[in-house]
Amino acid sequence: MLEKTFGALSNPVRMKIVEVIGKSEICACMIPRKVGRAQPTVSQHLKLLEDVGILSSRRDGKKILYSIKSGAVFDLIESAKRIG
């Protein structure tokens, strides 16, 4: 599972998505504009991040809201930044 987590975070677009979501919850409809990518591309990245356990989602009416599943992902990112 660790390899999948690092693999998911190795993509710059997925890292940007994690940064955009941060410690809040955000509608999927807002993410493409914030990361500068098309909606279908962002949807694929969101699915992968959710599949590896980095993100969680919930439906609120027609909206899908995403959040970071565990704050430990930020610790992991900060540790990696100190290494390289």
Structure description:
The structure is a single chain. This protein is an alpha+beta fold and 84 residues long. The protein contains 5 helices and 3 strands; from the N terminus they run H-H-E-H-H-E-E-H. It is globular, with a radius of gyration of 12 Å. The two termini are 22 Å apart.
SSE inventory with pairings:
Layout: H1 2-9, H2 12-21, E1 25-27, H3 31-35, H4 39-51, E2 55-60, E3 63-68, H5 72-83
Q: Fraction of residues in helices?
A: 55-70%
Mean pLDDT: 95
Instruction: Give the C-level CATH assignment.
Output: Mainly Alpha
CATH architecture identity:
Orthogonal Bundle
CATH topology tier name? Arc Repressor Mutant, subunit A
Largest sheet: 3 strands, antiparallel
**Ranges with pLDDT <50 over ≥5 residues?**
none
Radius of gyration: 12 Å
In percent, how much strand structure appears in the residues?
15-25%
Overall domain count: 1
Put the structure in a nutshell.
By secondary structure, this protein is an alpha+beta fold. Helices cover 57% and strands 18% of the residues.
Features:
alpha+beta; 5 helices; Arc Repressor Mutant, subunit A; about 55% helix; 3-stranded antiparallel beta sheet; about 80 residues; globular
